[in-house]
């Protein structure tokens, strides 16, 4: 971590801002709101913007980025933009066209980071979650190493400055790292990570391989019924986080974000509220003590908010289950 510039060096020589703005929003959020809040995030100081094909908002996020470039607020090189390859494009010949499609929506020449969104394949097509006549998700087989090689070609073509993965476990990462034809290592692994699910073992493994861990759902979760167990506890109501918030005169959310930064994790903060977007930038204004960090470490309960029950039991070619 480089606290002065609030960024971390990646294993390919590029740099990633350690605090990112997560742009995902539930379908009921109006698309024009995506433009507004992305502009607000850039105005507040965010330079790392995270999106994906699946979020169905890249057109709006791209518009916001371009408008802030046009008004002189930022230059393109100031913005670190992440997109993700969705599971319906898990054929080597579909990878580059998928990225081209995202770039066309964004109206940008390149993305700073392109990730494999999940380590499992869905039936190819335009429907993000293809289902059969019984309403069951339709899966496909995938050779993750072949997909990774196609990702490497996107980097070579200049369409993506860096490439990485998301939601990979250690074994799936090792499969990529041990591929005899490996040209570029993943620069990062973006996973669910928060005080109730701190990913200590995966973090240690990633650090040992010079792979940055990026945390999503760092504040708990948006609790959208389609994805999240509604009976799961609310992270930001945890007594330990609330006590530390009181001690440092910060919010529980800022304590949860600061925790990640101090353990070497890049953290995504998702909010569609202007006050909270601005507030999240205050994460650089204070520090947790070693005792504070130990107290938060002790909250780990192995609680995963994003359970993805639809993916359980699916075998990957040359790979174990996601969980």
How would you explain this protein's 3D organization?
It contains 10 helices and 12 strands. The protein is globular, with a radius of gyration of 19 Å. The protein has a single domain, classed as NADP-dependent oxidoreductase domain (TIM Barrel), CATH 3.20.20. It is an alpha/beta fold. It has helices at residues 31-44, 58-70, 92-106, 144-156, 170-177, 200-208, 239-248, 252-262, 274-280, 290-297; strands at 7-9, 15-17, 19-22, 48-50, 80-85, 111-116, 121-122, 139-140, 160-166, 188-192, 212-216, 266-269. The strands form 3 sheets. The chain has an 8-stranded parallel β-barrel, surrounded by 4 helices. A two-stranded antiparallel sheet has the order 1-2. Substrate binds at residue 117.
Outline the secondary-structure elements.
Elements: E1 7-9, E2 15-17, E3 19-22, H1 31-44, E4 48-50, H2 58-70, E5 80-85, H3 92-106, E6 111-116, E7 121-122, E8 139-140, H4 144-156, E9 160-166, H5 170-177, E10 188-192, H6 200-208, E11 212-216, H7 239-248, H8 252-262, E12 266-269, H9 274-280, H10 290-297
Helix pairs in contact: 1-2, 2-3, 3-4, 7-8
